[in-house]
Structure formats: C-alpha cells, structure tokens
Amino acid sequence: MYVPLPIDAITLGQTLPVNVWDPQGKLLLRKGQAIADEQQRHWLSMHQPQVEEAQYRAWT
Asked: The whole model's pTM is what?
C-alpha cells in the first residue's frame, strides 16, 4: 500500500531513504537520490509522489 509523500519531509540536498512513486506506479526517484533545489521539489509535487507505507513509517 502506498501513502502520499509530504513534500515538506524532503530536505534539499539530502538523500532519500525510500523509493518515490507516482499514483500509476511509475518510479520517480530511487532510494539514495537527492532533491537538489526547489525546482526539483516542485516538479516532484506535481507528480503526486507516494511511498510504500511500511518504508514511510520506518523513515519517520
């Protein structure tokens, strides 16, 4: 099961501890990638990012 990824949870320049998917199941970002700037964060928010619920709970 997937849950929405709060964009505020992403720290610019810090690697992501989870894979990020769109609602159709397309991988947007792999675990270990980083969002470099606000433009990338905005792009991600436009694609309704989601993460696996278990991974999100482990992350937070």
From this structure: 0.88
